[in-house]
Amino acid sequence: MADVILFPDAERVLIVHLNSLLTEPVSLTVPNPRPAAFIVVRRVGGPRRDLVTDHPMLTVEAWAGGPTAAKALLERARGEIFAMRGTVVDGVAIYGITETGGPAFLPDPDSTQPRYTCTLQVAMRGAASHSTPDDGGGSS
Known about the structure:
- The protein is an alpha+beta fold.
- The protein has a single domain (about 5-130), classed as 2-Layer Sandwich (STM4215-like), CATH 3.30.2000.
- It is built from two helices and ten strands; from the N terminus they run E-H-E-E-E-E-E-H-E-E-E-E.
- The protein has helices at about 10-20, 65-80, and strands spanning about 5, 25, 40-45, 50, 55, 55-65, 90, 90-105, 115-125, 125-130.
- The strands form two sheets. Strands 2, 3, 4, 5, 6, 7, 8 and 9 form an eight-stranded mixed β-sheet that branches. Strands 1-10 form a two-stranded antiparallel sheet.
């Protein structure tokens, strides 16, 4: 029987962490009804770095009433994410943060609401899960 390394849900780790620190809601999708200011975190790729480390690439998007407020909200979230380096968040060891795309003004094309976005890679440790061989799913 082999140990299988399972990786944490990177989006969930960031969403739970940011929701514990920010007053604006943080979620995986645009909330409905849409609040005046909010953050969306989405995994957009990223490789497994080694046997026990995932390196998910996550895009963080911050919407607010004006460009200055949207940028300030993004900068706050970005700073909180960088502060995760070298800590354990919700039981997940965070090894490092790499910025792959710095803050960019990207107004929402559907609502025209001001939005700032950035993309980060967050190195996270996986955990071993004991696996058993599959007997083919049949019963005797």
